[in-house]
């Protein structure tokens, strides 16, 4: 219990330093002084400074993810995706140093625990769009595009002087991405949209196809993924 209390105190101290002074302020010496512990305690609990920063990121983003997951879902999954986008950008602008810590430095093949948790929430939102028959590209492509564009827009806005920020920039990017990855209508693939939305929708419902064996579902999944891979994002709205 004492170790857990000490760990929480260290994370809280590091988070406060991050919020007030940026990442540069989160030195082992500064955190030790703020938390009232010796430096070896930090290394024992977190391994190294990156481990501490990952813990700060996970702690700081947990409240944001909680709000994103427990809020009432909109019956329209595309509208729910819009709301999720706005919540993401708003969180970044309210907590710029924490956002930059979690999303500002991609680590190929790795990523922080906080980033993995955020990505899982986004994949769940994209899955709902696919299950409704509204996705025109594969779930993976849609999630990657939403994540990359949303992160880029948020970091861009963070880097602007508050008085110079264009409040419509995020909205324009959001609607461009949504137009690129979703179909028209409120239910089912749009007429004439081709086989890709149908394949993506069936792919999302594969776990429900109990009539098929696991091997049959695996084969069907491979076929549907090949069809979905042929999808290309439509030009952005103008």
UniProtKB/TrEMBL annotation:
InterPro entries registered for this protein in UniProt: Homeodomain-like_sf, HTH-type_TetR-like_transc_reg, HTH_TetR, Tet_transcr_reg_TetR-rel_C_sf
Domain called HTH tetR-type: residue spans: 4-64
Key word Glycoprotein present: no
Domain of life, source organism: Bacteria
Protein's UniProt keywords contain Transcription regulation: yes
Gene Ontology MF annotations: DNA-binding transcription factor activity; transcription cis-regulatory region binding
DNA-binding region: 27-46
UniProt KW keywords: DNA-binding, Transcription, Transcription regulation
Any Pfam family matching the protein: TetR_N
PANTHER family, per the entry: HTH-TYPE TRANSCRIPTIONAL REGULATOR BETI, HTH-TYPE TRANSCRIPTIONAL REGULATOR RUTR
Protein name stated in the entry: TetR family transcriptional regulator
């Amino acid at each position: 219990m004492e170790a857990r209390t000490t760990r929480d105190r260290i994370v809280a101290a590091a988070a406060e330093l991050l919020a007030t002074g940026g990442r540069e302020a989160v030195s082992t010496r500064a955190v030790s002084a703020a938390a009232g512990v010796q430096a070896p305690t930090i290394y024992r609990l977190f391994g190294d400074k990156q481990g501490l920063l990952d813990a700060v990121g996970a702690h700081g983003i947990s409240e944001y993810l909680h709000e994103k997951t427990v809020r009432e879902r909109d019956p329209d999954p595309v509208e729910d995706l819009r709301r999720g986008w706005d919540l993401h950008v708003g969180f970044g602008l309210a907590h710029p140093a924490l956002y930059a810590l979690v999303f500002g430095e991609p680590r190929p093949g790795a990523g922080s625990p906080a980033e993995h948790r955020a990505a899982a929430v986004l994949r769940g939102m994209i899955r709902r769009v696919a299950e409704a028959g509204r996705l025109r590209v594969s779930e993976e492509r849609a999630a990657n595009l939403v994540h990359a564009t949303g992160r880029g827009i948020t970091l861009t806005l963070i880097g602007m002087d508050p008085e110079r920020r264009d409040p419509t920039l995020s909205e324009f990017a959001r609607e461009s991405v949504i137009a690129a990855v979703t179909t028209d209508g409120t239910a089912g693939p749009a007429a004439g949209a081709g086989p890709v939305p149908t394949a993506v929708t069936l792919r999302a419902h594969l776990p429900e196809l109990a009539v098929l064996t696991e091997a049959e579902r695996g084969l069907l999944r491979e076929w549907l993924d090949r069809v979905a891979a042929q999808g290309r994002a439509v030009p952005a709205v103008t």
